[in-house]
Design goal:
82% helix, 90 residues, 3 helices, mainly alpha
């Protein structure tokens, strides 16, 4: 009797080939992750500081716009990160 893991792996193998990555590619993907994590943290710090300043100065109407900008920039950076990692994998 096969485990659920083995069954899932069989289904995955049927749906598409499993791409293995080399140690070099793993290292490069790790570096890409680190670089984009740093970029995301930088944008979060910057925009969270602007949000804090807006709240402190009573400009509450700016806060939703800044939060939307933060979410948009994080999503964009994550998409760029995944694209860069996919480029390394292929």
């Amino acid at each position: 009797m096969k485990s659920a893991y083995e069954l899932a792996m069989e289904r995955l193998a049927k749906s598409g080939p499993v791409v293995s990555v080399t140690d070099e590619q793993r290292a490069e993907i790790g570096a890409i992750d680190d670089r984009f994590r740093a970029k995301i943290a930088e944008r979060e710090l910057f925009l969270n500081d602007l949000i804090g300043k807006a709240i402190g100065s009573g400009n509450y109407h700016e806060v939703p716009e800044l939060k939307t900008q933060l979410a948009r920039e994080i999503a964009s950076l994550k998409a760029d990160c995944e694209a860069a990692k996919d480029k390394v994998r292929s």
